[in-house]
From TrEMBL, chain A:
UniProt-listed SMART domains: FMN_bind
Transmembrane feature ranges: 12-31
Designated name of the protein: Na(+)-translocating NADH-quinone reductase subunit C
PANTHER family to which the protein is assigned, alphabetical: NA(+)-TRANSLOCATING NADH-QUINONE REDUCTASE SUBUNIT C (PTHR37838:SF1)
Gene name of the record: nqrC
Organism from which the protein derives: Flavobacterium profundi
Membrane topology per record: Single-pass membrane protein
Tagged with keyword Nuclease: no
GO cellular component, one term: plasma membrane
Automatic annotation (TrEMBL), chain B:
Taxonomic source organism: Flavobacterium profundi
Molecular function terms, GO-annotated: oxidoreductase activity, acting on NAD(P)H, quinone or similar compound as acceptor
GO cellular component: endomembrane system; plasma membrane
Recorded family membership: Belongs to the NqrDE/RnfAE family.
Gene coding for it: nqrD
Transmembrane parts of this sequence: 50-71, 83-104, 110-128, 203-221
Taxonomy, superkingdom: Bacteria
Location within or outside the cell: Cell membrane; Endomembrane system
PANTHER family, per the entry: ELECTRON TRANSPORT COMPLEX PROTEIN RNFE, NA(+)-TRANSLOCATING NADH-QUINONE REDUCTASE SUBUNIT D
Protein name (Swiss-Prot/TrEMBL): Na(+)-translocating NADH-quinone reductase subunit D
Protein purpose: NQR complex catalyzes the reduction of ubiquinone-1 to ubiquinol by two successive reactions, coupled with the transport of Na(+) ions from the cytoplasm to the periplasm. NqrA to NqrE are probably involved in the second step, the conversion of ubisemiquinone to ubiquinol.
Amino acid sequence: MSTKRTDSNIYTIVFAVILVVVVGSLLAFFANATKDMRVNNDKVKTQLDILSSIGVEATRANATEMFNQYIKKQFVVEGTTATEDAEAYLIDVKKEQNAAKEGKTQRLPIFEAEKDGKTIYIVPVRGNGLWDAIWGYVALNDDLKSIYGVFFDHKGETPGLGANITEPFFKDDFKGEMIYGPSGDFKSVTVSKSNGDPNNTDKTDNEVDAISGATITGNGVTAMLKKGLGLYLPYFETLKK
Amino acid sequence: MADTKTKEKEPLFSKKNLGLVKDPLADNNPITVQVLGICSALAITAELKASVIMALSVIFVTAMGNVVISLMRNIIPNSIRIITQLVVAATLVILVDLTLKAFVPDLAKKLSVFIGLIITNCIIMGRFEAFALGNTPWKSFLDGIGNGLGYGVILVIVGFFRELLGSGDLFGLGKTYLGHPLLGNPIKGELSGLYALGYENNGFMLLAPMALITLGLIIGFQRSRNKSLIEETH
């Protein structure tokens, strides 16, 4: 064996260097070549997701057009003041959450949509599921007390279990659900294993039916909504006046 | 899979070469006989669609990776051959990932977790090490296809039973989209089909333990048909 040319140390090192350089350049070139496509895909996906929360199912081809048609205004909320910003939908919620942890003011995007003559407010939310991040958009009716529709997505929840938060059967349960309790206190919406209301006919209990086998993802959704919507409460108060 | 007509016309598909594709499908299956790649077989088979996508991805990576390793088999230094194999597998997986993200972003989204899992699949490294390092590219390619298929077949069988019995669904289509729901509609108040007769989905099927039991039943069934697979017990 020791007579083989490929066993020498020099050969091994040279081979490793060449392999890494070749593979590295190949991947870097490929990543760069597809970068613009991927960035644009992400933008379009965000537009689709926001539209999905108000029940508009667009395709990748007409997403931008539909987005401009339905989303009338975009604001960035800081505290109780809102500034109009046509690119508010591109704000990275994760970055803003990290900025908030460092003590900076979190910039909160909010979108004003108009559908069937009704004004709908859409806010992004983000939290953690079982394996990785979960996020979504919550569309609120113009009374800012009940949910018009939701959109959820996740990075890596278990297929068939936690990943089902993206399914209509789960998201539809949120429609019409109140986020305030009977006495007007903020309750958000809880994903409950024990609400005994599988068809979700009671819209005032602040609860929707959980997915079997996806307890931690469900709890993640609950926490995400409570925290995410909670951030906007001061601004909602100014809107209601 | 085995087509006797192509065998006569095409020497590339000699009986031995065909065996490379056929054997892993049954008597030398990577999952049920060699017991490799179990982790992903348990993790992602709650849905049939995920099983199929994972199977296709693994077939691609085993086949292409086997070819690349086989082409390099005479120049790979022995002392770093494992890490070289790992680099090849990882590179292929990243290329697949980038391509999917650029051209079919929605499919890429569904695959996200599984793409990473492919690199850790023991079958891939196993085939690189045990086969591609000592065989020609064409044979390695067939071996990769065969083992990928052998893995995929088991994934699809497990996924079929888990999704059917666990969610009452197949490919996520049975519930609402097809004109005739597979088992009926399970939502309370509008029970139909089997559900109206008192049938209920077994949620346990969606959890990993039932994947293991399903896999165990497949292994048991296979060994009951082919006694030579049963190991000697002492």
